[in-house]
Amino acid sequence: MKKITNIVSLLATCLTVSAAANSTPSRAYELWEAEPAPNRGRSNWEATKDSKRPKSYDRDWERWSYPIGNGYTGVSIFGRTDTERVQITDKTLHNKGMYGKGGLTSFAELFIDFNQDAVENYRRSLNVNEAIAHVSYETDGVAYQREYFASYPDNVVVIRLTADQKGALSFTVRPEIPYLELKQRTGSITAEGNLLTLKGTASHFNCNYEGQIKVLNQGGSVVADAKAGTIEVNKADAVTLLITTGTNYRLSAEIFSNSPTKKLDPKAFPHEAVSARMQTAQDLGYAALKQRHLKDYQNLFGRVSVNLNARPSADPTHVLLEKYQKGKTNTWLEELMFQYGRYLLISSSREKSLPANLQGAWSQDYYTPWSGGFWHNINVQMNYWGAMSTDLSECFEAYTSFFKAYLPVAQQHAADYVRKYNPKQLTEGGDNGWIIGTGANAYHIPSAGGHSGPGTGGFTAKLLTDYYLFTQDPDYLEEVAYPAMLSLSKFYSKVLVPHGDQLLVEPSASPEQMTNAKQTKGMPGQLKGGRYYVTAGCTFDQGFVWESYSDTLAMADALGKDDPFLNTIREQITRLDPILIGADGQIKEYREENHYSDIGDPKHRHISHLCPLFPGTLINSERPDWMQAASKTLDLRGNKTTGWALAHRMNSRARLGEGDQAHEAYQRFICERTATNLWALHPPFQIDGNLGTMGGVAEMLLQSHEGAINILPALPAAWSTGHFDGLVARGNFVVSAKWTDGAATAISVLSRNGGECRIAYPGIGKATVRDSAGKKVKVSHDGNDRIHFASAVGETYTFKTIQ
Ligand code: FUC
């Protein structure tokens, strides 16, 4: 199943492979345009029909601006020469949001009036290798340059303006606090000396915010206009603008447990922290800030390269995309999108910041679509699908901190849930585990239920498990992953209801799948949830109980733990009966389904019943019948769907070893759900599609969920020649591979953690394995297609063919 059929023999030729880790991708990736982003103003904003979305949204921002970010602050750059627009988001600033539970809202707008209309040789770009945006143009015989970056180590946004002639820089810096007229926040702007300060309060959570913009000029002068709240720069040689943002938000258990007005201390102001950061940034100066930014960013970004043998394109990005959409597919854009996904993850999710939200770290809205929340029935998990495999596990630390903070409320939710649905199982005052439902945000986590069953908890926990499996961090296993899994399993054990010999989650709902009375006529399932179909033991819920139980047992083994509750899991896991095949050869979404789509929308974006295939591991090559049924299900569901939904299909196809179909889902995503700034469109913009397809590329090239490292498990014909360096496999092995005409020609593995290294690839049994000193390594064979050997920490092994 996982084999690539067009590969007959392994490693036809031997090529040397460079060391895997920390080699900056050799190729230069950038987005660029020969025009600034349009900014046609609110009158051009597009109306939305959906009552749950903002009334209108700004397509110019969404489709043309370039995002930079440092995990805390997201910035969208238009690169204009008349009036530049720099829109600023701080992930902690929330108003009431569209559901009344809180939602991300735009922090500020920074306008810079240059009044330069007739410009030549204009170019704006986003350099993905450096995380720096550039603007350059000429006017009146002067060449102007701008650089924009968001530094994580110094938590500051830097804009550097230069010209090739002295005294050529004159402009007005004019910030704005958006949406004041809608009365959910107060705000004022002061201008003093070279400092602009924006401050106020978003009332719903008493969120006090402050933003500072410092205008540092070389040559010329700066003049503050206190009344207008602006700073004018006159005839400077060069200018550095520094931007810092902050609020009184502190990630803590109280954020989730307290009532809206008690979540934050109304008397706490971010002024000192924001000012201190500004001072540090100013003291460091532009050159040091840039160097520190590059060091930090490139340490992460430079770890992985994927080369699909494309010829780099010289087209502006929107032309590149248009050509692709017209059928001129090219792997250059596919490579670029992959690295752009890694860029977006690094820019929106860093240790100590909040996790990447539904829009990453970017929102120009009053009410961000779906509140800019952490949606737990697939979206936030998808954000991290590629984190570990593309060697960005540090980015997941933001989610771990978030998890730790919300855990007490998740425990409360679990107790309430058991009390409501299965009161006999409640351990009053004791441990009932934890659970999280779909619509979370920085201030609130909901309980499970409604349109998505409690499988949402297992969906989340899979990330904790994977973080451990990839990093092999023993402290994480002991302190975070194992306790979380054990506790989640406790919760699940309390919501399973006996149905004959089986134990079924009840109530149970396959996320957002709807039905109607006609469809359910004569069905045992009950329409308890209104338009959403609620039943017992749907595959999504049963599957995630299985995954959680299985992961808990594996971790207990790894730690040598012997909790008495493990016996309950050992007994219950045999009674879940999670995977059933229906009359059309499909994986059933519901136990009571016979033919495909007896219940629900046959083209639904969610494919929740395939979660046991991906990100789960229950459907795997040991069960070819299930693999085949999963493939059939994907055929039936089709690819006419939203951005993130294509990403799930892509990853699922990769798990099936269906490289061409995985590639087709990727192509569709690029053709139909990608904006000209390469942001993913649901539509509207959601970051999950970017990050999910990024993970999908890695999943096509390397897998490790079946106890071995599978090299090139889902290589499509379109990627017949190429190489990758630095992808990570579970066990913390860093892998590189080179292939020609669909056949691997060189493989190398760096063992970061030691331990048994298992490699699967057709014909690998014939290969010779050597360590970095060239010494032949003794390997054991499991047939011709699998080998294993004991690896040493820090050692790199290369594989060569024996014909
Ligand atoms: C899930 C999806 C929707 C949307 C929302 C943010 O609920 O079903 O399509 O992506 O999250």
Attribute tags:
disordered N terminus, 7-stranded antiparallel beta sheet, binds alpha-L-fucopyranose, 37 strands, 16 helices
Question: How is this structure best described in words?
Answer:
- It is a single chain.
- 29% of the residues lie in helices and 25% in strands.
- The protein has 803 residues and is an alpha+beta fold.
- The chain has a nine-stranded antiparallel β-sheet. Strands 4-5-6-9-14-19-18 form a seven-stranded antiparallel β-sheet. Strands 21-30-31-32-37-34 form a six-stranded antiparallel β-sheet, covered by helices on one side.
- It is globular.
- The site of alpha-L-fucopyranose has 12 residues, from loops.
- Alpha-L-fucopyranose is lined by residues 358, 370, 375, 377, 379, 512, 605-606, 642, 644, 682, 686.
Précis, in short:
By secondary structure, the chain is of the alpha+beta class. The chain has 16 helices and 37 strands.
The stretches of 5 or more residues where confidence is low (pLDDT under 50) are 1-24, 523-530
Bound molecules: alpha-L-fucopyranose
N-end to C-end Cα span: 24 Å
Over the alpha carbons, how many angstroms does the gyration radius reach? 27 Å
Strand numbers in spatial order across the main sheet: 1-10-11-12-13-20-17-16-15
By secondary-structure content and strand pairing, the structural class works out as alpha+beta
> On the 0-100 scale, what is the average pLDDT?
93
Strand content: 15-25%
Number of strands: 37
**Helix amount, in percent?**
25-40%
